[in-house]
Amino acid sequence: MNPTEEAALQRLYADFDAEHLLPLWTQVGDLMPAHPRPQARPHVWEWKRLYPLARRAGDLVPVGRGGERRAIALANPGLEGRPYATPTLWAAIQYLGPREVAPEHRHTQNAFRFVVEGEGVWTVVDGDPVAMRRGDFLLTPGWHFHGHHNTTDTPMAWIDGLDIPFVHYTDSSFFEFGPEQVTDTGTPSVSRSERLWAHPGLRPLSGLGARAHSPIAAYRWEHTDRALDEQLALEDEGHAATVEPGHAAVRYTNPTTGGDVMPTIRAEFHRLRPGTRTRTRREVGSSVYQVFDGDGVFTLDGVERRLTRGDLAVVPSWSTLTVQADSRFDLFRFSDTPIFEALHQFKEETE
Ligand code: GTQ
Ligand code: FE2
Predict the structure, then answer these.
(1) How far apart, in whole angstroms, are the C-alpha atoms of residue 34 and residue 277?
(2) Is the pLDDT assigned to residue 311 strictly greater than 90?
(3) How many domains does the chain have?
(4) pLDDT tens digit string along 54-63?
(5) What residue's CA is closest to ligand 1, atom 11?
(6) Cα separation of 181 and 64, whole Å?
(7) Is 71 in the pocket of ligand 1 (CB under 6 A)?
(8) How far apart are CA 202 and CA 180, in angstroms?
(9) What is the DSSP-derived secondary structure letter of residue 304?
(10) In this predicted structure, what is the pLDDT of residue 301?
(11) Residue 294 maps to a domain
């Protein structure tokens, strides 16, 4: 290109800019990479550092109307300071002090809680009080009113998972305040939702038809634990039951469809026998893991990170993951996979 042409080209680009236009040919490599090149990075947050920070927030920051929740988001270091664990998923530690109440509200964002330690908080979902205890997985699907109240003299912390970033990018958020106090202060050990819905393989005839969200408000640890134990016992007895040798796994499902618990979020629990090393996998979409119990090593895009109880790890889209269990290793996992499956964009590779 001669100097005259070069100057003309620069004028063209300046005129594009003035009209808010951008040519594909200068951007194509970034816009259409040969495979996903996530901005989010693999990252680990240690529970032993998170929990004391949440406790300090408990001492200094009140919970109530306006702020709504004492939730502290995991902010992925690749995502430009936004409170997002991945481009689609929010993950936070939420802390509720003795006798505190987080007021009721509802929003289009889908939410869940997972409890790694403690008890004494009830989350009230559309008026149904749901006890929260170690190992329980609790749902607050989109547009259900929910508030949390701690009925004890001890604080409690848990993790929240929501599709906040996805809803934010897609400009689809609606939000409404509910009452400042929870609508039902009862403290039953089993919610009405579980009494109606949480019986294996049985559904009430008063509730036929497919629903977009699971009607089960709480998936209790005793069931998850037993399901995983039985997979390993069956494997010991020579029956096919595990996803790979020494690796038991279950997915939380919506009993009205057999599919995922909520339209945007998948949740699973994995149990590795001591010494198990998984195959290396990568897939489209992002995941967050929390260690429920035990010790092991996550190799994320070739980098080893040692994890222990409560630690959280983010696996961005198309990043490789291998898990090595040094003890029995129990892992809670959630991901945005249902979004990609629904759009026929899901893809995975196993080494
Ligand atoms: O508990 O309702 O971590 O609305 C973020 C948004 C928790 C909740 C979060 C929320 C909640
Ligand atoms: Fe909420």
Answers:
(1) 29
(2) yes
(3) 1
(4) 999 999 999 9
(5) 69
(6) 10
(7) yes
(8) 36
(9) E
(10) 98
(11) yes
Beta bridge partners of 94: 71, 158
Domain of residue 238 covers: 43-350
Is residue 263 within 8 Å of residue 213, measured between CB atoms? yes
Written as six digits, the tokens of 256 are 């009205």
* Whether the predicted pLDDT of 28 surpasses 90: no
CA distances from 107 to 63, 140, 143, 165, 241 (A): 18, 10, 5, 13, 39
pTM of the model: 0.97
In a domain, 3, yes or no: no
Distance (angstroms) between ligand 1 centre and the Cα of 139 equals 12
Q: Is 144 in the pocket of ligand 1 (CB under 6 A)?
A: no
Q: Taking the CA atoms of the chain, what radius of gyration do you get in angstroms?
A: 23
User: CA-CA distances (angstroms) from residue 295 to 54, 171, 274?
Assistant: 23, 40, 9
Ligand 1, residues 61, 63, 68, 163: which to mutate, most atoms within 8 A of Cβ? 68
Residue 146, ligand 1, Cβ within 6 A: yes
If one residue of 100, 160, 177, 182 were mutated to test the ligand 1 pocket, choosing by the most ligand atoms within 8 A of its CB, it would be: 160
Whole-angstrom distance, CA of residue 303 vs CA of residue 297? 10
| Closest protein CA for atom 10 of ligand 1 | 69
Q: Is residue 299 part of a domain?
A: yes
Report the CATH number that the domain containing residue 174 is assigned in CATH: 2.60.120.10
Instruction: Judge if the beta carbon of residue 265 lies within 6 A of ligand 1.
Output: no
- Provide the H-helix boundaries in the chain: 3-18, 28-31, 47-60, 164-169, 192-197, 221-236, 337-342
Q: For the chain, percent helix, then strand, then coil, each to nearest 5?
A: 20, 35, 45
